[in-house]
Design a protein that fits this description.
Elements lengths: L11 H33 L3 H4 L1 H24 L1 H20 L4 H29 L3 H32 L4 H4 L1 H15 L14 H24 L4 H23 L7 H5 L1 H31 L4 H7 L1 H18 L6 H18 L8 H26 L9 H38 L6 H34 L16 H5 L7
Subcellular location: Cell membrane
Membrane topology: Multi-pass membrane protein
Protein name: MFS transporter
Amino acid sequence: MPETALQPDPRRWKALIFIGLAQLMVVLDATIVNIALPSAQRDLGITDGNRQWVITAYALAFGGLLLFGGRIADLWGRKRTFVVGLAGFALASALGGAAANTAMLLGARALQGVFGALLAPAALSLLAVMFTEAKERAKAFGIYGAIAGGGGAIGLILGGLLTEYLNWRWTFFVNIPFAIIAAFGAVMVIREPAQGRNRNRLDIPGVLLVTTGLVSLVYAFTRAESDGWSAPLTIGLFVAAAVLLAAFVVVERVVKAPLLPLRVVLDRNRGGVYLSLGLAVIGMFGLFLFLTYYLQVVLDYSPVLTGVAFLPMVAGMITGSTQIGARLMTRVAPRYLMAPGFLVASVGMLILTQIKTDSSYPALILPGLVLMGLGMGTAFMPAMSLATHGVQPRDAGVASAMVNTSQQVGGAIGTALLNTIAASATTAYLTAHAASGGSPQALQLQSMVHGFSTAIWWSFGILVLAAGIAFTFINTGHQGGAPAGAGASEEDLNAIPVLAH
């Protein structure tokens, strides 16, 4: 007999273990391959021009299809979508690990993105409908937020260990046991609440417009990184993205059963979450990228030591999420956790702008990483919960997908945008100091560090902006009142304030 929203599923905490495991696998995959990429490139003879596609193929498929995946979860059932996503992800990972050439590897990465786009929103919306009591919800989202935030850094550690002691193929194969355990656990313990399924037909025009629009946007930033911002292809892609996404909004206003009901994003609080979270992820992904290169190239750390160097940030995230965020979420309004969280993270970023070619890890990098982790963990926690709080059960999948979309698109934009800024600053420094004499190798390293520092300054500014948006837009009280999501009454849900449109 299906559980009702008012009677919590007795196995929900066991279910959280398997949902968390699946989320960890998806988040890991965004960074684990980065460290393995040089080895894979040598092994398969991937050209420098095609190298970025190993990362981009995953980001494009994942970011472009997330809203579609969220709506499929609402239509088809979250548990079924979750299990299918896991099975497909495991299959794609097996293909990637067995790749014999560039095309097979890129195809496997795109396929991972497709199934990740089914899996991620199904996982978050299962949490949203299974945990409806405020304090329990805070604890569950604290654990989930820590995984979502810390998974990328864990990917760097695991990627370093697997690449150094086994080989790059294991960065793919490692997903298979994760997926099997999570799928088996889901089948055994997850019971999805019966109500809240969305029986409407799928909005095909909406799917096509938003998928091509998001793919164009992410690809435009990728091309800007390699071809420059003023290249005709880059400009064309940005224009195409704007037109397609504007057409998507028009279609969603008139279609009977929209892919993304505008009530989900036009709610002031949820809109504030999506926007501030997307900006924060832009800043954070840039940091991962530059610090990985800085530690390996400038300070000469091994891949494993680089991964270990990120551990204090993961510890900070887990502490911020489970000890600060989860404990205060039922007593403090979300904006008083999110805005200070982003500001604390920005102070960590500010410390990291001071890197030099011989900076001390304990004196400079360690405090910067700890503050980044603490701030992000504290902010991620209420953000993840608020994004699905009070949403109608039939929209839980698509509201969850929007959180993931803002993170994925933010990550892809952050990598490309900050990379371009860093490369320009490096070139400018090299040109300005070319005649100064001294060792060419030392100048090269100084230029690189100057480029990284410039990009981290931008990341600092973006995090301050994220804090400002969180404080200004988000005006709801603490999440300790009526049950969220599936537990709220229809009258409560209709009373959610929506911005005029």
